[in-house]
Fold:
Amino acid sequence: MDILLIRPPRPPKAITIGEFMFSEPLGLEAVYRVLKQDHELLLIDMMVERSDIEKVLKKYQPRCVGITSLCIDVETILTLASRIKAVNPGIQIVVGGTQAQLRPHSFTSPNIDYVMTRSTAAGISELFSDLVAGKTPGAIDGVQSKKEGFAVPKQLQFNEYLIPDRSSTQRYRHHYSYFGYKPSALLQTSQGCSKCCSFCLRWRIEGAVERHQDMSAICRQIADIDEETIMIVDNDFLCDGGRLETLCDYLKEKRIRKNFICYSSVHSVLANKDSVERFARYGLKAALVGYESHNSKELSAYNKKCTVTDSKRASEILRGCGIDVWASFIMHPDWSHEDFHSLRKYIRILQPEVSSLTPLTPFPGLPYFDTFRDRLLVDEQEYTKWSFGQVTIRPGKMTLQAYYLEILKTNLYINLFMNNAMYLVRKFGWKALFRIAHGSLKLTYRYLTLLIEEKGTG
Ligand code: B12
Ligand code: SF4
Structure:
């Protein structure tokens, strides 16, 4: 076999939702599509298939291996690479994906041969063709080699939009879910986000303007997707009323009925109310809305371009058209007990079906990293801790232990008293409740462990 493409297993110690929710590896599926014409290759999803890498190598004997990465995967990938090289030092190893794009130097190791900081079809094709042919690649746009060393590019460049080949994950697809919806597919229709919120990594990965793909090509992808549920991963899918109308026209004309889930900003719900209502009639079941804070001053400091009043209006509009809201909130490190209390009160007013809390995470490279440099609880190299699930900034108004206790209290309050559990049963049945509750319990256990560890260290 020429090439194995691998999604690594998620590290058990990281605080992630990966325990109960993971979806298709869109990036790897796109790489597969680029390479399949010219090479014999296979995609292995180790989040599903937990077989030993040695057995996999023995069976397929690849010439090169391409691995996709998120921040939490660094140690797993370094270990995987050393095991691959131990079996056969001649196998060339390429790492791509979000972490390779943002922090390529985290993969500095004698076992990683190339890192792709910007993915284009031409670059991927040239790199792998050379490696399969046993040639040393020359300079390729977006590719860094071990010899020259891996470093953050002077200017971050954005990935090309590439259409995924979903047949590459055919044997795994029944495992992929999005929250209660299982099986569920992912779809990207656009890259970038012009809202430019200060805490957000996404527009920095993909650019500060939306780069939309032609809607008719997107509609062809929708028609080819077998799953009943499609999660649209765009950063703010409801941002363009015209595109929503084109999509609805297509769904109507072709009589396609699917469940759609998407991310949206409050701003876009308010700006495109009528199209959002129409999209609800054509399948939009849930929107993930970043309400972020109960405090308008904090929203403005985050550059959120909406107020608490806007959030309340958006929540009414969404409720009015029967769209479930899966809300997210950011816990600021300078919150007091009163702030946590106000947040719980605010969630009661907004009444989202599901709420999730994320500590403000100053990911290395973001401006907040410098703002909070003196209060960081985690070294840049402690990769599994940069999961956006763990507290990384020392709280300013209470001890870390008290802060974790507030997180636990708020999580329990949301899960027990905000009807999350009943919503899950009503909507998805007991099986989904158990799957999600099992994952949530693991998360709660991780928070408890951190709380106890913190007590131990004083
Ligand atoms: C959808 C999504 C999810 C979904 C589905 C993920 C999945 N597939 O299972 C869910 C909700 C489950 C999820 C979970 C998590 N996610 Co997420 N997610 C995203 C989101 C919105 C889109 C990702 C995507 O599919 N993009 C489209 C694909 C095509 O892009 P891509 O993977 O980068 O691939 C391109 C290139 O990188 C390249 N490429 C990719 N792999 C490879 C490999 C090789 C060899 C090569 C050559 C090229 C290559 O090819 C593509 C060409 O364009 C991004 C935000 C964003 N806008 O990027 C966050 C994001 C990736 N997630 C993030 C995080 C932190 C997580 C969690 C760890 C959060 C948590 N605490 O639980 C978990 C991880 C658990 C898990 N399941 O993996 C961070 C990653 C930060 C980082 N530095 O790595 C992001 C950026 C969001 C953020 N916080 O800003 N996520
Ligand atoms: S609207 Fe969402 S994706 Fe866009 S910059 Fe703000 S938080 Fe990031």
Q: What stands out?
A: The first strand starts at residue 3 and ends at 7. The chain has a mean pLDDT of 93.
